[in-house]
Structures are given as C-alpha cells and as structure tokens.
Specification:
The complex is a heterodimer of chains A (190) and B (342). Chain A is built from 1 helix and 16 strands. Chain A is 2% helix and 52% strand. With 190 residues, chain A is mostly beta strands. Chain A has one helix spanning 97-100, and strands at 3-5, 14-17, 20-30, 38-45, 51-57, 61-63, 67-77, 81-85, 92-96, 112-118, 121-126, 130-138, 152-156, 161-164, 173-177, 182-187. Chain B has one domain (6-160, 222-331): Bira Bifunctional Protein, Domain 2 (BirA Bifunctional Protein, domain 2). Chain B has 11 helices and 13 strands. The chains are: A mainly beta (190), B alpha+beta (342).
C-alpha cells in the first residue's frame, strides 16, 4: 500500500490514522535550533468530521487512504439507503444515513452531488453549492415589498426551512446556498 | 510596511493549488524584493564599516556535517565523484580563519533536505560571520546591532533580552530544565494543548518542548538571545571553562521565530573529532547514513584556529520579520516549492 512521509504532507492529502481515513487541513514544520524536526498536522477525520492535531517526527510515514471525490447523480432513497449513480458509467452506489445526513436537507432527485468514496464505498455526500428547490409552505407573498430586511420562513420540498423575502410566494422555485443555508434568489420555472 | 506590499503571494498560491497548475509566478512582490535588496546593501555597508572581509566559499564539498538533524544533499561532479552541497559555509570559513585571513563574513546560499514550511525552505540565504578573539557575549551585541540596523525604518524593536536556556525553559513551562524527563515533557505538552509522538529519544522531547512551547514565547518585546545551551546541545560551541555542563552557544528569537545561532567556537581538534564521531555513532544507531568527516577542517584546527566567535543568521527570516511578512515565501522571489509542507 502507498504511504506518505511527512515530507510529502500537504493540505488535502488523505491518510489513514488509527484505522480511519483523514484529510490534512494544515501542516506546520517545526524544527527547533539544531534539533529534531517535526510535522504538526491538523487533520479532519472523514468519518466523524472531527478535527484532530497530531505531531510526527520528520521522516515518519502514514498509509495513504483510498479516498476519492466523485460527481454522482442522486437517484432516490428507499428509506434505508440513498442511491447515487455515476453519470458516465451508470454505476450505482448505496449510501447509509450517516454518510448523507448533512446533505439531506438539500438532497433533490437528479441533482449532481459530490460523493466521497472510501475503499469504493460512500463515506460522505456534499450537495451542490447551489440548489433550486420549490417552496411548499410559507406565508402569502406581499407584492411590492422588495426590502431586504426581515423576511419570513419558508419550507422547501426537501423539508429544509430557509428565510426568504416577503414577496416570495408558495410554489415558487428559489435558489439556496447549501453552505450557508441562505436564500440567494428566485429561480425561473424550468 | 503595508500589507499591500506583501499581499500577492498567498492568494496566488491558493489559486494555483486549487487549479493544480504549476505556477511560474514569483511568491514575493516586486516591492518586497526591492526592500530585500536594500537590506542586503545595508548589510554590506555594516560589515564594511566594521572591517570584516566579504568572502565566498565552495558550495560543494567532499565532506558534510555529521549533525544527525541536518540532511545534506548529494550530487556527482564529473572527474571528482560524489560531492555534498553545503548546509552552512562554516567549515571553509574556519579554514580561512586558521589561515590567518581575519574577520570574515558571507551571505551563502545553503541547502538542507527535508526542510520546508512557513519559515523553512530547502535552500535559503545564511548570513554567517566570524570575529577573531571575541566570545559569544561580544558577538551577541553585534548581532543585536545588525538586527536594529536592518529593522530601522521598517519597524520598531524593543530592548535586548538575554536569558539562559534553562531559565527560558523554566519561565515558559514552569518546570526546571533539570527535571524535564520525557514524562514531564509530555505533561508540559498536554498542558499546552500540543500533541506528541509516543516514542522519542530524550533529546527529541526537549526539542519539541523548545519548538512548540518555549520558542513561541520568546522575542515579542525585543530581540531575545537564549544563551548557555546545555552541553548536550553544544553543537560546535566550546564548553564553558567555569562550568562544562553549559556551552558558549546562543540563539536569537524574534516574534517567536528562531533567527540566529552562534557559538564561542570550539577550536580543539581532538574534541571536534570526537564530536563528529559521536554524531556519526548516533546516525549509525538510528540507521541513518554516516557522513564523511571534514578532514580539512580538522587539519586546520590542528594547525591552529584562533579563538573566535561565529554566528549564522537566517537572512530570509530577518527580512521577513523586518518587513512584517508572515512567511519567507513573501520575501524570496520563489518560495518553497508548492506542496512541500504547505
């Protein structure tokens, strides 16, 4: 199996640590005076999302994690698994709830998501940065009110609730930034 | 110095990282390089005025430092065979001193394998000089004068501080250096919220505590000179006549960054050979390559190296600190290779 020595450490590198796949967030080279050199590394555990700090002596190495980000289309859920497909090969993957949990409020059938595969099994799912979703429930729109202040809650077809301006109506399509959970604008009907 | 002068580098580098395209672009702005060039002119004038001779010595050598924590790069020279690239100009400069050439200085491009980061680069500029008949205390004053001269007009700098290694260790950790066993070092690191490898030789524990707990506290009010290193860390310094448990070695820290390393130089050929051998034994024990000892240096010491003090200043780091930059990449035309520890 491939390994990476501390000299090759850089942000984004995926490594196995204590049996879990991790991604390097930050690597600091520490070498006091004429002494031993170290790498102080901040890593994200890709299974739990937890950030941890580890220090290695220079020259130590860690096994590479077989982790790849792949664009996949979300197909459907059967309640137990969420099914995704590679658009080019039509190869399908079933993700467990734990790996899709964070994407669930934004997950709409046919949208293309980033599925992170570890040893060819879905580890986590990131929704597109922007999604277009229909409002299924909100107070009636106030015509002419284009002010930015205030707004009102609106429930979307995926179940997520976002704040939208007062003039937006039930049944309309809105564009939402999934990273912040914020309304970006109205979207034209498809 | 304004942020604007230094801005370009990290933004450019981040863009490249994202795009995955190797960048041809410099990591320092033109303004930063102009300031650097001006600081180099000041340095030259400083040593001219103080009567030290500017020299250049070979970058390739048949021998290499034995220090287990310095990795030399190796190359083949047609007709001559294997040669090591200098990690410091120290040995040839000492041969000049032994030949009676007097005080000398140089700005040398040196190379050290495996060193890259915010304040490390596998190749960097080392400002090194020697003073005949001086000891480390006298040289500390001159290093302080050099730093003030370079900072002038760029940033304010507070009064000089000199503190013994053991005192600096105790001040930052609350633990006497003599009590700093591996398990004590581990608890110091835990208290500081720092992680550590589980298995390490004793000396490495001290290095880690120094690097992540002690050093970051040093030199925030003015240049901080850490003096009287323990004999185990003497490197090429002579041990104190009055107390051989300590060495005539000092380091300078500014803003928590190590800037210089200096010695009241060891001049005894037999002791020098013994230290080389001890280093090489440690290398062999750790499964590292044993380095060819510099016989020319030992012969020069045999012939007689005058009593002297010498120091190496990381020029890139001083420029970085003077200009208020946060990485040496911002003050070198092309910083450490992208991907190397960044």
């Amino acid at each position: 199996m491939a390994t990476y020595s501390t000299n090759e450490f850089r942000s984004g590198l995926k490594l196995m640590l204590d049996g879990d796949p991790c991604a390097i967030i930050e690597n600091e080279f520490v070498k006091p005076g004429k002494g031993q050199a170290f790498s102080r590394v901040k890593l994200r555990n890709l299974k739990t999302g937890r950030v941890l700090e580890k220090t290695f002596k220079s020259g130590e190495s860690l096994p590479a994690a077989d982790v790849v980000d792949t664009e996949m289309q979300y197909l459907y859920t059967d309640g137990e698994f969420w099914h995704f497909m590679k658009p080019d090969s039509f190869e399908q993957f079933a993700a467990e709830r734990a790996s899709v949990e964070e994407a669930l409020p934004w997950l709409k059938e046919n949208d293309v998501c980033t599925v992170t595969l570890w040893n060819n099994a879905p580890l986590s799912v990131s929704p597109p940065n922007h999604v277009i979703l229909q409002i299924v429930e909100t107070d009636p729109g106030v015509r002419g009110d284009t002010s930015g202040g205030g707004g009102k809650p609106a429930k979307l077809e995926t179940g997520a609730v976002v704040r939208v301006p007062l003039f937006v109506d039930q049944g309309e399509l809105v564009r939402v930034d999934t990273r912040t959970g914020e309304y970006v604008g109205r979207a034209a009907k498809e | 110095m304004s942020i604007r002068v230094l801005a370009s580098t990290w933004a450019a580098r981040r863009r490249n990282k994202v795009s995955g395209v190797a960048s041809w672009r410099p990591t320092a702005t033109r303004a930063a390089l102009a300031h650097r060039a001006e600081l180099l002119r000041r340095t030259r004038a400083f040593f001219d005025a103080r009567g030290a001779l500017e020299v250049e010595t070979p970058a390739l050598a048949a021998a290499a430092p034995t220090d287990p924590h310095i990795a030399s790069l190796y190359t083949e020279v047609a007709g001559a065979g294997g040669r090591w690239l200098q990690t410091s100009p120290e040995f040839p400069m000492k041969r000049l001193l032994a030949a009676g050439y007097g005080d000398c200085w140089q700005l040398a491009r040196v190379l050290r394998d495996g060193e890259a980061g915010r304040v490390h680069c596998p190749e960097f500029s080392l400002l090194e000089w020697y003073r005949i008949g001086w000891d480390d205390a006298q040289l500390i004053d001159e290093v302080d004068a050099l730093v003030r001269m370079l900072f002038d007009g760029h940033r304010a700098i507070g009064p000089i501080e000199c503190i013994r290694y053991a005192a600096a260790f105790e001040r930052a950790t609350g633990v006497a250096f003599t009590a700093a066993t591996p398990s004590t070092c581990a608890s110091i690191l835990i208290d500081a919220g720092a992680s550590f490898p589980e298995q390490m030789p004793d000396a490495a524990w001290h290095d880690l505590v120094m690097g992540v707990v002690v050093a970051p506290t040093l030199g925030h009010n003015g240049p901080c000179f850490v003096t009287d290193y323990p004999a185990a860390q003497a490197a090429l310094a002579r041990l104190r006549d009055e107390d051989p448990a300590f060495a005539g070695r000092f380091e300078l820290f500014i803003d928590g960054v190590e800037v210089a390393n200096g010695y009241h130089e060891l001049t005894d050929a037999a002791e020098q050979r013994q230290r080389f051998d001890t280093d090489n034994a440690a290398r062999a024990a750790a499964g590292m390559p044993v380095m060819p000892v510099d016989e020319a240096l030992l012969a020069a010491l045999d012939a007689g190296l005058p009593g002297c003090a010498g120091v190496a200043v990381g020029f890139d780091r001083v420029v970085m600190l003077a200009l208020g930059a946060t990485s040496i990449a911002q003050v070198t035309a092309f910083g450490p290779p992208v991907g190397a520890n960044l």
